[in-house]
Amino acid sequence: MRLILVMAIVLSVSDSAQAQDYKSNLESMIIGYIKPAFQEFASSTQSLPTAVETVCLDANETAGLEFQQVFSETVHDFGRIHFLRFGPLLDQDRLSRLAFLPDPRGIGSRQLRKLYANKDKDALNAAGLAKKSVAVQGLTALELIAFDKTGEVRLGKSDENSEFTCDYALAIAQNIHTIAIALEADWANPDGFKDILLTPGGNDARFQTSKEAIESVFNALVTGLIVVRDQDLLPALGTSEEKAKPRRFPFSRSGNGVIFLSSELQGIEQSLSSLNLQSLTPQDFMWIFDTLNFEFGNAQKILAQLSPPLRNSFGQGDSYKLVSVLAITVKSIRDTVALELAGALDLAGGFNALDGD
Q1: CATH number for the domain including 215?
Q2: Taking the CB of the first residue and of the last residue of the chain, which one, N or C, has fewer CB atoms within 10 A?
Q3: Range of the structural domain that residue 33 is part of
Q4: Where is the Imelysin-like domain (predicted)?
Q5: Whole-model pTM?
Q6: Which residues contact 183 (CB under 8 A, 6 or more apart)?
Q7: CA–CA separation, 222 vs 350, rounded Å?
Q8: Residues 204-231: pLDDT tens digits?
Q9: 183 and 245 share a domain?
Q10: Are residues 35 and 111 in the same domain?
Q11: Domain for residue 64, yes or no?
């Protein structure tokens, strides 16, 4: 009887230490990456409405370049949160409202044509727009109406729809900023999703243990890598160089394809680093972190060799080969994280949140 009691105490202490370890890792990521990333996104989106108003007031070269710069910064900062597919970003369909990706069937374009044909006045203010289809609310919709097919800023240029377009663009910009502010506030809220992650087993049934909480976060990073390869790269590569589809690169219309891809991968790498998983990893598996540093570095080197805009440059020189190698590199990173690292940590890391595999 005494032996059973001692074993129960030991197991209880072990479970408590494990939970504390995971809580520390999660807290490190929240403080070190998640909160700053959402703060940066809220900050960059704050400049978007003003940039829209300025270029619509006078579509001169300076105003056009300013809008282009602000849009690029917003896309960059969006890439750094795009993969955080849990909690606040999924609430109220915020992720799809910020950017309707992927869109292989051109749903966004069809919805926009319908909106313009009806001259839908409800879309000309942020509150009304928030009730519309997610495909016409965010950055992907703004890109379609603000840039022409060559990547030049057309917002503010005089045509039969210019007034409607400017009002609609302003509503989109305000809607994006409103969502960004809400995301920042949700992560800052001590009683919000942060508390659910850090204190599992309470009234919220999503996580019963600290391990379940860290697995959810870990799987979001794995899913992020799957998205980069399967949704961002492979559709653009097509089945061969002759059948490549550079328009399938995210944000390729505005010339921000490389920026978005780079920020996505950088964000995943920094998120993974902020979890401080080395403290939980057996010594025999510490090689994994050197491998990941090398692979992520290679991915960024490849991206640095691509010339934006990809919609125009893809297929020239070694660009197709480089993106093919990038897809292989991202697959390797994904396997290292989902198989090797997850195995070393005894985490369920191979789950794909996109399809439930």
Answers
A1: 1.20.120
A2: N
A3: 18-198
A4: 36-325
A5: 0.92
A6: 38, 41, 42, 81, 88, 89, 94
A7: 7
A8: 788 999 999 999 999 999 999 999 999 9
A9: no
A10: yes
A11: yes
